[in-house]
Amino acid sequence: MTRWHSWPAWRRIAGLTGDEMSSATIRGRELAAALVELVDALEASAPENEGFIVEPLLEAVDLVADAHPTAAPILNIKNIVYLHARDDVALLRKRLAGVTSRLDEAPSRMATEGALLIADGSTVLTHSLSASVRAVLGAALADGRRLQVVVSDAGPGWRGRDVAHGLAADGFDVEVLTADEAVGWIAGMDLALVGAEAIGPGRVINRVGTGRLAEAARDAEVPMYVVAATDKILAEELFRVSSELMRSDTMEQVPLSWFTAVITDEGILMPGVVARRATEQPVARELR
């Protein structure tokens, strides 16, 4: 066993490989924080040998990325490590600390931004309810707005009724629709909210059925928003990895242009802005 494999920071990182319960945002936050801890431990153990830092960091981020190959925040962290580990450890530490801080604050910021879009008395459609979407709904409810939540019960392995029971327990007025009903009745909704596994320059990865709803919402002129932290925006090369490895029986790609906007921790971003951000992100040579 290499010596750093016994360090607390490494154990935190290794533990993330088996974490299938936490959201991608939480796993990304934990990975970034643990990598900063690993950098500090490596520098303390061999202050005279900066080259010693590179191998453990690349091994660590590869380990977690291999376990969660479609998790966008983790792919972005891997890119950061590959960009900076070899030549600028100070910048690497700063960028990882920035990821930790950003992902800590992202859920509450998205909730605040998204809740502003929900008027009192609204009917909101959800599909593949994410933790971020749930936070938006919770913020609107906490602000005293009355709303009905309609859950689309669609897609393999998607337990819409279980989600509906959870939302009802939280105090929401909830109705469950089949996939066909959701598409047929979407014109009667005030808005629709979905999460995302990853967002690329022109596409969004989310649960099967999202595309039908997004197209129907567009045709009916019903606003449909993606709720996702900016750390889920991927450069094309990284998005390609996520799309190639996604489970095609449960996930699909949907044109970004079909959505009204993306509710992020930096505000509500139009599809064109999100696409530009993805296109402008630098990608490490090894990951292209």
Structural commentary:
- With 288 residues, this protein is of the alpha/beta class.
- It has two domains: 104 residues, translation initiation factor eif-2b, domain 1 (Four Helix Bundle (Hemerythrin (Met), subunit A), Up-down Bundle); 166 residues, Translation initiation factor eif-2b, domain 2 (Rossmann fold).
- 50% of the residues lie in helices and 16% in strands.
- It is built from eleven helices and ten strands.
- The strands form two sheets. It has a seven-stranded mixed beta sheet with strand order 3-2-1-4-7-9-10, sandwiched between helices. A three-stranded antiparallel beta sheet has the order 5-6-8, with helices on both faces.
- The longest helix has 27 residues.
- The radius of gyration is 20 Å and the shape is elongated.
- The chain starts with 7 loop residues before the first helix and ends in an 8-residue tail after the last helix.
